[in-house]
Each structure stands twice: as C-alpha cells, then as structure tokens.
Amino acid sequence: MAATGCSALIIGSAQLAALGEITNSWLLANTLMYLGIALICFTSLALNWTPWLRASEALMILSAYVGTAGVIVTGLPDTTIVIGVAAFGLVPLLPGIAIRTRSSHVSAFNLFAVCVTYIGSMFLRFFLRDGGASLSVGEVVIYIVSPPFAYLTGWFMVRALNHRVLEALAESERARGALQHTLAHQVVLNDALVQFVPQEFLTSLGRHDISEVKLGDSVTKTMSILFADINGYTKLVEGMPPQATIDLLNDLFGALEPAIVDHHGFVDSYIGDAIMALFDGTPRNAIDAALAMLTALRRHNEARRARGLADIAIGIGINTGVVTLGTNGGARRLKCSVFGDAVNLAARIEHLTRRYEVSLLVSEHTMELTGADHGHDIRTVDRVSVVGRSAVTTLYEVYDADPEPRRAAKRAVDAEYYAGVAAFYDRRFAEALAAFERCLATHDDAVIRSYAARSRALAATPPDPAWTGVEVLQQK
What we know:
Largest sheet: 9 strands, mixed
Distance between the termini: 90 Å
Structural class: alpha+beta
CATH architecture of the largest domain: 2-Layer Sandwich
CATH topology of the largest domain: Alpha-Beta Plaits
CATH class of the largest domain: Alpha Beta
Shape: rod-shaped
Number of strands: 9
Strand content: 5-15%
Oligomer: single chain
Order of helices and strands: HHHHHHHHEHHEEHEEHEHEEHHHHE
Number of helices: 17
C-alpha cells in the first residue's frame, strides 16, 4: 500500500503542477483521482496500526476498484490502457492479501467483479470521454475482450499453480510429520536403550551412544563394586506365581535403585534377585549408597507390613579395585559388562553377609581408599581367604543403618570387642575368650559368637606356629 500510495502521489503531483499551463477538465479529474488513490492508500496503511484493521482492508479493496476504474475513465488513451490493464491484473489477488482467504468462491467472485468493472470502465470511457465513438471489431477485442480474457487465463493458471504448490506443501508437511515421528520414536528408543545399557557405561568407554559401541571395546579403571542380594530369596518366593515374583522384585528394585543413582553410581545389571552397581569415584559414594539402600529397604518393609506381607532382608558387599569395563559376546549378540578379580571379591563379600548375619560388609581396600575421616560406625569382622583367592581380605561391617538399639549396643561393647580381637590374633586365646564373653553378656551377635567359639577351640587345642588367624572359606 505504501508503494501504491507513493506512486499515485507522485503522478498526481506532477499532473497538478502541469495544470497551470494546460486547462483540461479530464486532466484535472485524472489528477484528483490519483491524489484520491494516494489518500486512500495512506489511510489504509495508517489503519493497520489501529484496532480498525477490517476498515483498512476495505479501503484497500475500494482503492483498487474505484481508483483503477476512475483512472481508466479520466486518463489519456495510451496511459489508460497500460495502467488500467496492469492495475486490474493485480486486483484478483486482493482477497488473498486483504481478507486472507483461500476460498475458490471468493476468488472467482472477485475475478468476475474485476472483469465487469473493467468492461464497465472501458465503456464509460468511450461514451463519456470519447463521445460515444464507434469501435471496430479489432478495438473491441483489444480494449474490451482481451484484458478480461487475460485475467481469466491468469486466474486459471494461478489456481493450477496454487494447487500444485498446496500439494507440494501438503507433501512437505507429511514428510515433516513423518520425520518428527521418526525423531520422537528415536528419542523413545534411545531412552529405552539407556535402561539396558547405562549411559555412564558408554561414557566410561568413551562413546556417546550405543551405536558407537563395538565388540571388544574396553577400558581399565579403579571402581567400587556393590553387590546386593535378597537373603532367603528361595523361601520368600516359594509358592508364588511368576508374575507375583516379578512384581516383588520390581517393587524392591524400584525402591533401592534411586539410592544408587543419588550417590553417583549406576546399576550395571540385575542378576535374578541381586543388584550389581558400579561407582566411578570415591568409595565413600558406594558406602553412602549402601546405607541409603538399607534405609529405603526399611521404609519398603513398613509398606509391606501394612499389606500383611513379610519383611525382606538383603545383604550388601562392597569392594574397590581395578576392573575392566568392556563388551564381550559374538557377532550377533554382545553384552556390556565389568570384569576383574575385584568384581569377584565383591560378590564373595556379599555372600558372607549371611555367615556373619550383618547387612553391609566392606573390604579393606574400600575402607583404605575411603580414608580415616569417613564418619561411619564400623568394626572389623574377620580376616578371610575366600574361595578362588589366595590373598587375605580383612572385612569391615558398616552398621550406621542398624536400628538404634542394636547400633548403640555395638558401640557399647566396641572397646571390649577390639581388645578381644587384638588378643585373638596375638594368640592369647583365653584372654580373647574372656573379652568376647563379656561382650556377649551385653550384646549377642554372630560375629562375636564366631570369635568366642574359635577362641575357645584354640585355647583348648593351641594351633601350630604357622597359624595366622585367617579364616579359610571353602564355600562361596
């Protein structure tokens, strides 16, 4: 509208300047017509920034019809034909510009109105301006028939082109929708794959996603390995239907897994009723995660008791050492896993929680790397040589998660307990037995009973000089 208004203003101003030299009523009418078009265009443009947008659109269409018809009637012959045909050629576009419609009915009606207005304008010109001069057949064809025919042809061509364009746009929209669906599906698929192969595992391998993983990829690093297993699982699920067993495990794992994630670990795998988790950082994270798991288990058991179900007990074993994370398998099936002696020892330690009737056992390697300022309640449980290993491992119990009466009782006998342990490994078995019996008078548990039984046996039958006090275990 700005360009049209400016053009009309320039033409009108030029003709107004010429009126001083040429006195012509038709030129004056033509000049006023151009100036009127400019005024309507600028008014329509100004209304675009007001609430009267519809009025702006109406003025736009009014200026096209009335202004163009007026120019044809009042203008000079050569200029009239050029401007009139060109201007009316643009008028069929107005419904799409002004009232933003794709309706073919509105477009066809507008084309009909354009043709009628143009033909009427030409006849008015001939009768009013040219004094009703007769027209030859050639002039009728050139001046009256040809332009509307051109408008009609152009309209059909534009409609056909629009149809093709709309089809192309629709096809593009379908393709975009299909691409969005594929991308959304890919996101869902990636999220699902992360549930099978943890992102932390891929990051450790230096991979961004599972598509980059290849058979044989591996990395060696120091990590803490946590194993957790249900005590008495076989008896717990005896007689249960398969679905109930699955629901039991899923409920339990769902309660325990957040404790691992919250302490910067990730679940490597669920092995039946067991959890294997890895911690790539300070071993303190693994210990804190284990204690949080035991706290979560206590809340889980409260909910089970409210439903009339039996409590679940778990044992947790933690070891820290050098492991290899990698992929193994065949050409059609591979698995991401962790390998190493440190992993095997963590599994053995977890099994020993049943022997010593404790919830959390930690290896000496883990406690050494945790540091002396760990702030946990711990006690030495035993020195053992587990199945499959000749090296000796000192086991520690971390009992922060014990119920407060039991935790307080362990603290109360702590000094007497360590005096008995020191006497035991110093081969003063009678003194050790006396210390352990004093502990048992205050607090009875499997660890103290084990030391007392072994002290009693060794006091009765002293060992040979090669004795080290290491408990050699023959069972996993």
